[in-house]
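retry 2 of 3: previous attempt timed out while embedding manganese (II) ion. Reduced batch size to 1 and resubmitted. Inputs unchanged:
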Amino acid sequence: MEITEVAEDVYEIPRSGDMRVPARVYASEPLLEKMREEGQTLEQVRNVATLPGIQKYSVVLPDGHLGYGFPIGGVAAVDMDGGAISPGGIGFDINCGVRVLRTPLDYGDVRGSEEDLVERLYDLVPCGLGKGGYVRTDRDDVDGILERGMEWMLEEGHATEADLEHCEEGGRLPGDPDAVPENAKKRGVKQVGSLGSGNHFLEVQRVTDVYDDATAAAYGLREDGVVVMIHSGSRGLGHQVCQEYIRRFEREYPDLVDSLPDRQLVYAPIGDDAAEDYRRAMYGAANFAWANRQAMTQAVRRAFRELFGTAEESVELVYDVCHNIAKEETHEVDGERKDLLVHRKGATRAFPAGHPQVPPAYRDAGQPVLLPGSMGTHSYVLAGGERSMELSFGSTAHGAGRLKSRTQAKKDYTAGDLKQRLRGEGVYVKARSGATVAEEAPGAYKDVDEVVRVSDRLGIGTKVARMRPVANIKG
Ligand code: 5GP
Ligand code: MN
Ligand code: MN
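retry 2 succeeded.
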């Protein structure tokens, strides 16, 4: 495959065949090499460039790896006029995302209590099916959540105004319960406030490095401060929405499916009923994911109050980002302002300072970007960078990115050894199963520091602070 370096950390795959635009790979040499080794990631980013209405280039970020049709770590922006929406460009876990909470505590305050912390959080935040989380919901509540997301949580007394202000889109998109399949709703009823399996986690972290004092101060982060990172999405509900709409698209557009370089790219033209129903359902699932992360936030506030006596309002939301979503945004393309539908799959919005969609408190600093690493390495807080609008439709990476398949990781690691090693490094892990620990071993992920270096060097998301895990629960 022809691929050329056009600037430092910027590679381009020129247009060929049915590609409507070139493909762009933002990576360092070693990270590009990882994508090459994996095989189809670059093929996928090229396939995405065939999407109707796609603008500028199909993008893959430094954490990019193989996904369903579209790579994880990919951005595809299409024209609202003449473009198409593709579930594969959003992902099965609709509005999977990350939030970070700051606590008034320092590392010294929690040191020695990790075991209690992990146990209490594990009790309050269920991982799997059926048990129900911190917020009990019935079928009608689910409709309210699908329609209003964080606003429903506020009305019900599970969130503050400040929580809403610190979510991307205020924690609500125009979702429509009527567009969400009944089976999806059923799956959602007992899942509000539950973590989900495998890669999802709730992690207590210690801020170890601050790179940008002014921005860290604006975000309320300080060295040695304790923060909590929550990574979860829309659970079975979102998965069911994605699955049922893929099936509907395949049914309604059989000729299209046959003509695609990969049937997993299936899409519907914006404006068609199928496309608009999916969009309203997807927004509903996004609202569900916000409510889910918010319910876990309430559980964290309670656990910290019980264990450390901290007031619940002193555990504040720094920010909440979506990394599996498509949204309408205005971007400049060839000197023209255009309304685009920006698909971000395993990609984080990273709007720069001054952008009107950055909350007022952070307007001069840029939007916080929350970038997890692994349970044994660093995670980062970045700030949306000056060049993100020009290079990546206001986006950057969403994590370190997977390096080894789950199967391979289970062969290479054992849970007992890993947990013991991590304990020696001051990290307490509690997981539903040993297999999860092995699958999520730090070695199963790429080098997060390298991913962040690329983002920072390109100026799409710049370094603010870095954290280390202290306690981690996963599904
Ligand atoms: P994804 O949304 O693609 O499943 O995962 C996002 C990112 O989370 C991964 O690329 C990985 O870097 C990171 N990650 C996975 N497990 C953990 C964990 O237990 N702790 C932290 N801090 N990051 C993790
Ligand atoms: Mn997810
Ligand atoms: Mn995710």
